[in-house]
């Protein structure tokens, strides 16, 4: 590493299994950018202190992961519209005029679904399962992509209603899982996105499987070496295309890289590498 190498990292707890260093190393090689990108573990009560030490040592930017995305939002002096809508920040850029915060998760989701998977958002009827931080993070980019309708369904219905109200868009509506079996599913969906954390226990969200009838794509925001429980559920019901969120991870990283370096890396070869690595480990 030369003395002028710009330093970046992903901060989180835990962060040991993050794939971000491998992704950014590939982006840097591909675009001939002189950067170093590490993992930065922080104690649960030590986000700000860890960030400040990294900045003091000359760090230029950070990706932020669980559980610090809201703290990162509070820490910024400048926030993008995407970050404001998400209420959370996954990308920090340290600049002369302060700390810039952005959120690239939603654009990562939309690019992966729209470009790699070839799904047309314009006019689509979208069902999002979950109403937590992950769901909120992708709300605005989904609406901006031109969907006709965005139904947010959550195990706890009140959180879905709150999130739909927060979107402030007539196309967004919230409901509980129980309401999906009847009215909402009667209209059908083109795309279902799983933004719940049910998959952490290898469980699928407990929705009436009839919601998958007629769906063209079922997309899980988490990823793994094997199909997730949600993907298996949608596939078993006959959904013609299912995907995990590995491509979203690569796309959100590419947008962060662009924010920092002003260069857009190619994502397809990086996605292929990561997919092969994951498969080799299973
Ligand atoms: P995240 O940042 O991952 O979104 P979160 O803000 O804690 O984390 O939100 C977790 C989301 O997953 C919520 O929508 C939660 O539903 P509730 O609001 O009803 O708790 C959802 N979730 C977690 N476990 C679930 C499960 N087993 N089945 C369905 N939904 C689940």
TrEMBL record:
NADP(+) binds at residues 130-134, 154-159, 221, 245. Pathway: Metabolic intermediate biosynthesis; chorismate biosynthesis; chorismate from D-erythrose 4-phosphate and phosphoenolpyruvate: step 4/7. The active site is at residue 69. Residues 245-272 form the SDH C-terminal domain. Its EC number is 1.1.1.25. It is an enzyme of class 1 (oxidoreductase). This is Shikimate dehydrogenase (NADP(+)). It comes from Quisquiliibacterium transsilvanicum. The lineage of its organism: Bacteria, Pseudomonadati, Pseudomonadota, Betaproteobacteria, Burkholderiales. The gene is aroE.
């Amino acid at each position: 590493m030369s003395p002028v190498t710009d330093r970046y990292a992903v901060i989180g707890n835990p962060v040991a299994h993050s794939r971000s260093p491998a992704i950014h190393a590939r982006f840097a090689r591909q675009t001939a950018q002189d950067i170093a990108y590490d993992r930065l573990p922080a104690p649960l009560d030590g986000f700000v202190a860890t960030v400040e030490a990294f900045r003091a040592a000359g760090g230029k930017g950070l990706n932020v992961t669980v559980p610090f995305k809201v703290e990162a939002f509070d820490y910024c002096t400048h926030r993008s519209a995407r970050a404001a809508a998400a209420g959370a920040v996954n990308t920090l850029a340290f600049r002369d005029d302060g700390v810039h915060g952005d959120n690239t998760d939603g654009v990562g989701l939309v690019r992966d679904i729209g470009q790699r998977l070839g799904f047309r958002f314009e006019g689509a009827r979208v069902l999002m399962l979950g109403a937590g931080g992950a769901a909120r993070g992708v709300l605005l980019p989904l609406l901006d992509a031109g969907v006709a309708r965005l139904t947010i369904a959550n195990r706890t219905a009140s959180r879905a209603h709150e999130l739909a109200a927060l979107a402030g868009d007539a196309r967004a509506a919230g409901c509980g899982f129980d309401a999906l079996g009847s009215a909402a599913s009667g209209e059908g969906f083109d795309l279902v996105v799983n933004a719940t954390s049910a998959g952490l226990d290898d469980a699928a969200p407990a929705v009436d499987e009839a919601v998958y009838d007629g769906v063209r794509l079922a997309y899980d925001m988490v990823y793994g070496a094997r199909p997730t429980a949600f993907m298996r559920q949608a596939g078993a019901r006959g959904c013609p295309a299912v995907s995990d969120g590995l491509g979203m991870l690569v796309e959100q990283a590419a947008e962060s890289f662009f924010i920092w370096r002003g260069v857009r890396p190619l994502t397809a070869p990086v996605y292929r590498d990561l997919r092969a690595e994951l498969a080799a480990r299973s």
